[in-house]
Amino acid sequence: MPIVQISRIQHRRGIKADLPQLAAGELGFVIDEQRLFIGNGTVADGAPAVGNTEIMTAGSSAFTTALSYVYKGYLGDSTPITTGASGDVSRTLQQRLDDYISVKAFGAVGDDSTADLSAIQRAIDEVYSDTDQDDTRARRILFFPAGIYRIDGSITIPPFAHLVGEGPDKTIFRNSGNNPVAVTEDDDGQVFGSIGGSSATTPTQIQIEGITFRNTVAYGGVSIDNATKVYFNNCKFTGSYASGGSDASNSKGVTVRSTTALPCENIVFNQCQFTKFARLVDLSFDVTQVNFNNCDFNTSFYGAIIGEQMDGSTNGLTKGPRSIQFTGSKWSAIGQQAILVAPATGADSGTGPRNIISYGNFYGQDVANNFEGVDSIHEVPVIQYDNDECTSILDFFERTDQRDTDFSDSTKPSNAPPEVQGIGLHVKAVKQITLANNTSSATDTGIYLPGFNDKGVRIIYKINRGTTYRTGVFTISAAGEFCTFNDDFEEANGSAGITLSAKTSDGDSTAGNDTIRVQFTSTSTGTDATMEYQVQILV
Question: Which residues contact 335 (CB under 8 A, 6 or more apart)?
Answer without folding.
Answer: 243, 244, 300, 301, 302, 368, 369, 370, 371
